[in-house]
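User:
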Amino acid sequence: MSLFELDKLIQNNQLFAAVTVTAGILFVRMIWQKLLRKSTKINSETRRNLINSLRNSSHLLIAVLLIAIWLPELRHFALSVAAFVAAFVLATREFIQCLTGSLYHVSTKPYAVGDWVQIGPNYGEVLAIHMLSTELYEVDIAHGNYGFTGRTLTVPNSLLVVGVVKNLNFTRRFAYHTFSIVRDAEDINLFLLKDRLMASVRSSCEHFRDVGRRYNKMLENRLDIVIPGPDPVIHISSSELGENVITIGIFCPTVEVEEMEQKITEEFMELWYSAKQAVIAQKEALKHAS
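Assistant: Predicted structure:
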């Protein structure tokens, strides 16, 4: 019988081969042990050492041969276990990521209950922190209103490890707010209105200017960065469509952001329409003069 045929026979009768090999090795070991015990040429200490070595060697040989016999089955079992683990990980990936996000929060403490945060695309005040999710009371920061929307968000903690987490707690009191006003390009030079608009914006911001300056300085010292403000900024530009764009930046109390934006927009509109009426009157005068 060739080795290939023997290997094929063993694979087809693995249980029988395993029992035969084990019984055969144990039988041979038993005979050798009897011969060693009956031998008078070997002292007792050497006999014990030989019997112990024989026992250990037989156990090792049995283990090696059993592994060789059952290797194909062990290979299939290992592949099945690997496939099961891979399927389990894929099926519970989101759950595992949420648990990882919880561990990340426990180790780094990026926010606490009551903080204003941005988790991924979501803004809000932290109401509760659970093992798998964080509950937020939504704040409309994305649109620059800084007001509560009345909606409650349940954000999975997986976003803590796959997205950006921003603590916006310092913006709860004061925020640097920018907004733009777009007007059609007409015969009005906005730069001639800039100084008057700046004076009007400064006057509107006067009631919180000192507090804003102190808060701005405190944030810069604590965060070791330069924060825009507290003085207002006006920037004039044009859009791709040729429209006039005036951008205004103010450092103001969060609760007054929407009110200040409306007030400054109203002041700009008054200046702009006054300038427009002046241009129209000038054109009419030139028309009548000609």
